[in-house]
Amino acid sequence: MPEKLHIGERVKAFRKAQQLSLSELSARTGISEATLSRVENDQTLMSAANLYVLSQALNVDMSAFFDSTGCPARSGIRSITRKGQGVSLETERYSAQVLCNDITNKKMNPAIDIVAGRTLEDVDGLHAHPGEEFLMVLDGCLHLHSEHYAPLLLEAEDSIYFDSSMKHAYVCAGDTPARILVIATIDATHLKDEGE
Question: Of 76, 82, 81, 147, which Cα lies nearest the Cα of 109?
Fold first, then answer.
């Protein structure tokens, strides 16, 4: 069974270590103060896209929200996540398994997401983050919404690779939630610029 997460304390610790108020973090991320407060108090979890934005605003690797004991990235690394053993993120509208979470400072963030939201409002609208993203539909179908293109229907075994700095969102297009593999790169240049 996947491990359950309570990441609020880590988010709060990273924010306080940088002496940021909720208001300042909200301004950096575009995520409302109310949502950030609920996350810090473990009353809700946010989507992987928002966690990515939050990690960049706080200048930490996204995996730092899940596991403080991960091994640093280096030559010859590998990480195995057995079926059903990813770190679980679950809310009323969102479910994901973060894969290969034991490696910090990695160049990609892989996850298996369940897309149940049927409208842009259900998935908190369009989001963007520096880097690139690969998506493959494992089961079901979804619409990929983006700021520059008409919604695109993707069905089981369809895949797409795109610039994730373009605002985007996944919306379920079938009778049952879609199950997808998402791999997002981390734009190290952007992270370095943010930290300077």
Answer: 81
Structure tokens at 31: 């995520």
Three-class SS state of 90: strand
The count of other CB atoms within 10 Å of the CB of residue 63 is 21
Q: Which domains does the chain have, with CATH numbers?
A: 8-195 (2.60.120.10)
Whether the pTM exceeds 0.70: the reply is: no
**How far from 47 is each of 50, 55, 91, 150, CA to CA, in Å?**
5, 12, 9, 23
Percent of the chain with pLDDT over 90: 39
- 3-class secondary-structure state, position 5: coil
Q: What are the tens digits of pLDDT across the range 80-93?
A: 889 988 888 776 66
Q: How many C-beta atoms lie closer than 10 Å to residue 75's C-beta?
A: 4
